[in-house]
Amino acid sequence: MTSSILVTGGTGLLGSHVVPLLDADVRILSRRTANSRCVTGDLLTGEGLDAAVAGIDTIMHLAGGQKGDDVATRNLVEAAARAGVRHVVYISVIGADRVPLGWMRMKLAAERAVAESGLPWTTLRAAQFHDLVYKTVRTMARLPVVPVPGGLRFQPVDAGDVAARLVELALSEPAGLVPDMAGPAVYPIGDLIKSYLDKQRKRRPMLPVRVPGKVGRAYRAGANLTLHGATLGHRTWEEFLRAA
Fold first, then answer.
1. Which helix H or strand E contains 28, and what residues bound it?
2. Which CATH architecture has domain 5-243?
3. d(CA 157, CA 85)
């Protein structure tokens, strides 16, 4: 095998932006072989991972889900350590260490698995992608009365901008935890919903609601944002929305 970069999640939203930007030979990890670039392996069980990482210099770990990311990442870096991989690049999420949600704690545990693997590593925390925010507001806008969580703000970033940054990091020396990456502007959730409704030429009454508990306090405090020191993407929410 001559591939030098293995991409997990290479056929997903982020991976579909990343793979075309790589000049190096690329191997894509998939549970089901989709094309000649794909190798079969299961991150959650570890099956096939040793063969998948054989001969690899750099792993770009982009695969993710609502459950099991910590287990999957641990399995991957253990196989990578056995193979002598030289660089692991991991994509995480802004607020992984601050927002008290189970999914965020899982992402933080995955970050720690990478950092404690003994391998050279780079981790980039990114804001929510435009695509995810679009899906969220579209779902909310289907309701006859749209709930608007008070104090909830997003800093959506374009998946293509994040992909370009990840490729830059993968082709550079390992850098540990690098500055977060966010979109060029912060929006209250109500503004995002309204902009979607305007695009669809629809009207919905909107009802302010309060998110209770520690999660609500974290979001009202902006724990999911990086207002200072972040690397900023170029494509705005408005540009994305016009093309959606």
1. strand 26-30
2. 3-Layer(aba) Sandwich (3.40)
3. 30
Residue 152: phi and psi, rounded to 5, are -80, 120
CA-only gyration radius of the chain, Å: 19
Give pLDDT tens digits for 35-70.
778 999 999 999 999 999 999 999 999 999 889 999
Cβ(31)–Cβ(6) below 8 Å = no
Give domain limits for the chain: 5-243
- Written as one string, the DSSP assignment of 188-214 is EHHHHHHHHHHHHT----EEEE---HH
Query: Which pair of tokens denotes residue 163?
Result: 């992909």
Q: Which amino acid is at 150?
A: G
CA angle centred on 71, ends 68 and 77, rounded to 5°? 135
